[in-house]
Every structure is written in C-alpha cells, then in structure tokens.
Amino acid sequence: MVKQRIIGIDFGTRRVGVAMADPLRLFSQPVGTFDPDLAIEKLVEIFDDCGIECIVMGWPVLPDGGEGRASRRVEEYMGRIRNRLPEIRIVKWNEEYTSEIAKEMIASGEKPSMRHTGRERIDAAAAAVILQEFLDQGNTIA
Predict the structure, then answer these.
(1) Over the stretch 60-83, which tens digit does the pLDDT of each residue have?
(2) Where would I find the H helices in the chain?
(3) Is 142 among the domain residues?
(4) Do 12 and 32 contact (CB within 8 A), yes or no?
C-alpha cells in the first residue's frame, strides 16, 4: 500500500501555499497557491485521492520567540482544516525565513518547478521549504 502523503502549508490571509511530499517522504514539491477556502478544498481533494497522514503548518514566531496576531490567524485556519479533516494530525513548524529561502531558490532555479517568480510562486515554494525542513529533520510519521 502507498503511504499517505505529508502536506506542507504556508498560510496567508489572501493566499495559502500548499506542498506535498513524494510517496517515499524524501522530497517536497509545490502543489500550488490558493485562496484560503480553495486551499481547504484542495486538501480534501488530496485526502480523497491519496490520503493525508499529516499536515505541517508554517507557524509564525515573533523575534523574541513568542506568538502574536499572525499565530492566532494560523490557529483559526487550522481549526477550519480540522473541521473538514478531523482525523488529520497538524504539526506546527517554525516558518522563520522560509519565504526568503523560497525567493532564493526561485532566483537560483534550484528546483525546476520553482523557476517562475511571483508572489503566488513564492507562497507555494515557502510551503515546500517548510515541508522539506520537516522531512530533513527526520520528522516523518512512522
């Protein structure tokens, strides 16, 4: 049986970047950027197609390590995801510098799927960075 997927999310109030790990959970790949409602529908679609074992949610952290208004917005969005996909585990992952890393990856063309620029491309790439960091730390789910 094919392993269920691990998903990465970079939340924004206007755009949500979504990424997905390969079946072996070695690499992340951008899926796309969607408005918040459509991103949830995309998650449901992925769940129906191949299953989702875990969602890695980019978690905004203040410079002092605390949580602020952005964290509360992400928490509210996580609640919306849980309403649609209650059985899916959601892991918070520090998203510090992920947009900057994504911009550098796009500029350097490190990943062919990230060569085009634009804010929407950056959001999807940032989701892929969040997910790749999670995978690289050995945080796969059994």
Answers:
(1) 887 777 777 888 999 999 999 999
(2) 36-50, 69-84, 98-108, 119-136
(3) no
(4) no
Q: Which two structure tokens, joined as six digits, stand for 30?
A: 């951008």
Return d(Cα 33, Cα 15) in angstroms, integer: 6
Question: Which residues lie below 8 Å from residue 45, measured CB to CB, with a gap of 6+?
Answer: none
DSSP structural state of residue 109 = T
Residue 28 · residue 19 · CB < 8 Å: yes
- What is each CA distance from 13 to 19, 49, 73, 76, 110, in whole angstroms? 17, 26, 8, 11, 28
Q: What is the mean pLDDT of residues 30-44?
A: 96
**Residues 6 or more apart whose Cβ sits within 8 Å of residue 12:** 123
Residue 80 lies in a domain: yes
Evaluate whether residue 141 is within a structural domain: no
> Would you give the distance in Å from CA 77 to the centre of its chain?
13
Q: Could you report how far apart the first and last alpha carbons of the chain are, in Å? A: 14
Q: Which CATH number belongs to the domain containing residue 122 in this structure? A: 3.30.420.140
Could you tell me whether strands 28-34 and 16-21 are parallel, antiparallel, or unpaired per DSSP bridges? antiparallel
CA atoms within 13 A on the CB side of 7: 29
